[in-house]
Amino acid sequence: MKKKRISIREAAEILGMSENSLRPFIQQNKFYFGCAAKVSEQRWSYYINPTLFAEYNRISLEELGEKIKKIRGE
Questions:
Q1: 3-state SS, one letter per residue, for the chain
Q2: CA distance 56 to 68
Q3: N or C: which end of the chain has fewer CB within 10 A?
Q4: 10 Å Cβ neighbour count for 59?
Q5: Beta bridge partners of 47
Q6: What's the pLDDT tens digit per position in 22-39?
């Protein structure tokens, strides 16, 4: 997998949880694979590191890429 962004939706689906459940965990630094920055009163920006996310899920970057392609319908 080339280093691309992983969306909250994609990460949540791979983890088997909802987007609304995942967001607070990332905001509170509960998962080491991502971070969040508050950009305005009600908006957050998220970054999920593909390498760390694959490591957390105990899969290769190639496997992660395949899962993301499937989610994206590619």
A1: CCCCCCCHHHHHHHHCCCHHHHHHHHHCCCCCCEEEEECCCCCEEEEECHHHHHHHCCCCHHHHHHHHHHHHCC
A2: 15
A3: C
A4: 15
A5: 35
A6: 999 999 999 999 999 999
Calculate mean pLDDT across residues 45-59: 97
Q: Quick one: which of 69, 45, 65 has its CA closest to 53?
A: 65
Residue 42 is given by DSSP the state S
pLDDT band at 2 (very low <50, low <70, confident <90, very high): low
Question: d(Cα 24, Cα 4) in Å, to the nearest integer?
Answer: 22
Smallest CA-to-CA distance from 7 within 74, 72, 73 is with 72
Q: Give yes or no for a contact between 47 and 34, defined as CB atoms under 8 angstroms apart.
A: yes
Q: For all residues of the chain together, what is the average pLDDT? A: 95
Given this model, what pLDDT does residue 5 score?
Answer: 86
